[in-house]
Each structure stands twice: as C-alpha cells, then as structure tokens.
Amino acid sequence: MGEQTRIQTQTQPLPHHETSSQPQPTAPVTETPTDLSQNPSYSSKIPVRPHKLRKLSSIAAADSTDGGDSSNTLVVSKPSTSTTATATKNRRRNSSQLARVPPSAIAPLSAAGEIDAALRHLRAADPLLADLIDSLPRPAFDSHQPPFLALTKNILYQQLAYKAGTSIYTRFVEFCGGEDNVSPDTVLSLSTSQLRQIGVSGRKAIYLYDLANKYKSGILSDNLIVGMDDKSLFTMLSMVKGIGSWSVHMFMIFSLHRPDVLPVSDVGVRKGVQTLYGLEELPRPPQMEHLCEKWRPYRSVGSWYLWRLVEGKGNSQSGAGTALEGIMPLQQHIGQQEKMQQQHQLQLLEPINGTTSFGACIWGR
C-alpha cells in the first residue's frame, strides 16, 4: 500500500506555473487509474497551455513544429468552390457588358487624330450616315476663343441677323479695347447706356452683367469651364441668364470642341435627322436621342454632318461643300434657316436663344 502511494505521488503532474530541472520518473503501466469525477480539486492541477491563434494559413506548418496544440488553432477558412465560381461568372458577365459599351472620347475634336477616329466610328455605326460622310468634306474644329469671350459673343448675337450681330459685336469689342481685353471687369465697367449706344438691348445688358458677375464671384472661370464634364458644364452654364440649352450646346461643340454633344433643340439638326431617316415629322428630343444613340461618343460630328445635309439640300455638291472657316454653315442659307427657326420654335421644349445655322456660324468665328 505504501509503494502504491509513493508511485501515485511521483506521477502527479506539476502545476503549470512550477518548473523542475530534474527528469521525472516514468509511471509504470500498471498504475491504478484515478477517478477524476470523484476528485473535483484535481482539475485545477491540470497544466493549461496558452492558446495559440494562427493568423494566416501559410504559417500553419511553422506553428505545428513548436509543440502547439492544433485543437486550439484558429484556422482561416477558404472560400468554397461554388462561391469562387459565382464570382468568376460575375466578373466575366461584367467584362462582356463593358465590351459592348462604345469607347469614351475624352480628347477634344481639335486634337490630332480625333476627327479620323470619329469618322471611323460613325461609318461603322450608321450606314446612312456613312453615305453622307462620303459625300461631304471633312469637318474642322480649329477655332480657339477663350470661354468668356465666346459666351459674350453668343449673347450679343442672339436673335439678330448675322450682319446686325457682327456690327454690334465689332463696336462692343472696340469699347473693350480689342478681343484680348474682353473680360468680366471690362464688361462690368460698361454702363447700360454705353451698351445701348452700340445697339445692345437692356435685356442683353443684364445677361452680360450676370455672366461677368458669375466669373467675378468664382462660380465660373475659363479654367473651370474647360475642366468640367459635359453634364456639369450644361448645369452651370444654364444658370447664367440668357444662356439656354441651345446656347450651351453650340458653345460645347464650336468653342470647346466637345465630341459627344447632340443639340436636340436645334432646328437644323432636327431637320437633318428627319431627312436622314425619312421621318414624316420633325423628331422630338427623345426620338433624336434614340436614333442618334449609336453615334456615341461622337455625336457632335454627326450633328455637323446633319447641318451640312440641310444646307446642301437642293444645291450643288460644290455649294454644299463650301463652309465658312471649315465648320460654319453657309452665309447664304442664314435667312432660310432663320425662317425655319421661326416656323418650328413653338415645337421646341424651351425657347431657343438665336437661330440655328446663324448660331453655329458665330461660334466658330
């Protein structure tokens, strides 16, 4: 009995906070088992190893060699095969959808190679427009005016015949000391009476002052206008008194050379869509958007060809191929376009600031 007690005492484990440098005797195989259920204090003497958390599965092999208990290891689970397959399928579907989206044109039409890229795209996208492109000369978007000067010029030419608008604009520039001196400060320095002396109406004077004040307050600037995307630019310029959607579209095409503008309120473009697609009536803006959607991202160039189509209808090809400075409609058709504008103005969703071909003419000068 004493021997049995001695053996049990020697084989009892040390508490986990105690250490011993002496080797421990090995218990014989015939050791009498101890009933743990009847000895509640025995569990407090069982050594407890601190849990080791495995942060990354890639270090599992290193952890397993240090004697750690694998049952206490936190294992990072890998995604199931079905989840991986679903993610791959979604990526493939998204890639195929993006592949069907037309290329985005970022550079202005005056940049090198942009006109060639536009013509390639339009020819491939619309066979009817391809025939029109082949029958007319290449467009050119090479006018370079500061945004403030171009917007001021548009306001002065509104609702006037080309000759009258040119006369008023010339006198206005002389008052300012030349086109290089047309600035917000110069415009605000001119009184209403001075503007009336050169033929500027009181309403147009208000428009000019509003544009200049928005520049002075920092709401607008030439740099901001050039850097804005099309949607933001349309919103900001439409806030200026006297500048509506038609004026913004003309400015974006002929001054900033934006490649993807469809002037849905322009009578000339509406008439061109009607002629190109053989419609019985002038198309409304939603119908124009639908028909010209395939021209993206070069709807500005498509619109340019529609203007030329309307101008050249009933004239010789050589007459249709002669344009003012390469991008403006023919001056001899201005009167005809003004008449067309008056006939169809009531059909537009909002009033148009100026006449169709006449407006395009002043923007490029």
UniProtKB/TrEMBL annotation:
Residues 1-101 are annotated as: Disordered. GO terms for cellular component: nucleus; protein-DNA complex. Coiled coil: none annotated. InterPro entries: Alkylbase_DNA_Glycosylase/TA, DNA_glycosylase, HhH-GPD_domain. GO terms for molecular function: alkylated DNA binding; DNA-3-methyladenine glycosylase activity; DNA-7-methylguanine glycosylase activity. CDD domains: ENDO3c. Residues 1-13, 20-44, 67-79 have a biased composition (Polar residues). Keywords: DNA damage, DNA repair. It holds the Pfam family HhH-GPD. Residues 156-311 form the HhH-GPD domain. The keyword DNA repair applies. GO terms for biological process: base-excision repair, AP site formation; DNA alkylation repair. The keyword Metal-binding does not apply. Belongs to the alkylbase DNA glycosidase AlkA family. This is DNA-3-methyladenine glycosylase. It comes from Actinidia chinensis var. chinensis (Chinese soft-hair kiwi).
